[in-house]
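We emphasize that the prediction below concerns an isolated chain of 158 residues; any contacts that depend on oligomerization or on bound cofactors are therefore not represented. The input was used exactly as deposited, without trimming of termini.
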Amino acid sequence: ITNSYHQVSRHVDLMFTPGKFVPVVPFTPATYPFCLKYPYCKEIIMLAQRWNPKHKQVVLDMDMLYHTKQRDNFCNEWIERNGKNGEDLYAKHQPLRWKLRDEKIIGPKGPTGTDYLAYLVREKLDGMYKLTDRSLYGARAPFVKVFKKEEKLDGMSE
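Result of the prediction step, given as a token string:
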């Protein structure tokens, strides 16, 4: 659930609901103050709405706990839609408004935790998680960067 540039924060304990032991995953609502006024976040929602047109929750990649079988199914379908390296992510679906103005799209280059959640909702599998609104309850980052310079040099972050 992490890459080699991060490690699990000291404060992290995986959170599960009492009784059913469903993992708790924080989300940010896709509203103007929390997301839609930021181009990158807005683009993440627009991409997720290809999976589920009514999707309105942003889940950070590092906040999602991925179920292996469902992640594999999602990734296979994502590759079918967008190409193995995401070469068709924007080519097939680039909105006309950007083409007309010849503007660059600010958005992810691959699948996101938000896409995965939208896929799960479409498949009616989102019950495997308890989603909590981080705008109401907050959330702490489960991972900390340990190799910031190396990650930047490898082109994995800006």
